[in-house]
Write a structure and sequence with these properties.
mainly alpha, elongated, transmembrane, membrane, heme, oxidoreductase, metal-binding
Amino acid sequence: MAYFWYKAFHLIGIVVWFAGLFYLVRLFVYHAEASQETEPAQTILKNQYQIMEKRLYNIITTPGMVVTVAMAIGLLTTEPEVLKSGWMHAKLGFVLVLLAYHFYCGRLMRRLASGDCQWTGQQFRALNEAPTVLLVAIVLLAVFKNSLPTDITAWGIFALVIAMAASIQLYAKKRKRDKEKRLAEASSATSDEMTEQVSA
C-alpha cells in the first residue's frame, strides 16, 4: 500500500513541478521583453513579473520538486532492486540535469530581479524547451524501462517533439517581427503627422 501512496504523490509532484518550470521561464520571457517598453510601463511590468516569479518559484515549483524527490526516494525504498537497472541510472541522470535546471532558473530569477541578467526573450524561449525534452526522456524511461523502443515510431515521436519546439521558436520570431513592423509603421505615421502640422 505504501508503494501506491508514494507513486500517487510522486505523480502529483511531477505535474506541479513541471507546470511551475514551464510557466516560470515563460515569465522570464515577458520580464526580459518588458525592457522594450517605455516608462513607467517598464518598471511596473518588471516589478509585477518579479513578484509573480518569486511566488511561483517558492510556493509552487520548489515544493513540487521536493514532493517529487521525496516520493521518489519512498518508491525506491519499496523497490531497491531497481537501482541496479541501467534504465534507472539513465533516468536518475536526467533527473539530476532537471534539478540543475531548476536551481539555475532560481539563479536567473535573482539576476532578473537585480537587473544583472542580459538574456533576451528569445534566449529564454529556447531555454524553456529544455524541460520538455527532459520530461519526454524521463517518462519514456519510466514506461519502457530496459525495452525502450528505437524503431521508426520512437524516432518519429522524437522528431515531433523537436518540430514542436522549432515551431514555437519560429512563431516567437514572427511575432517579434510583426511587433517591430507595427512600431515602425506607428512611428512613421506619427512622423508624417508632425511633418504635415509643421507644413500647415
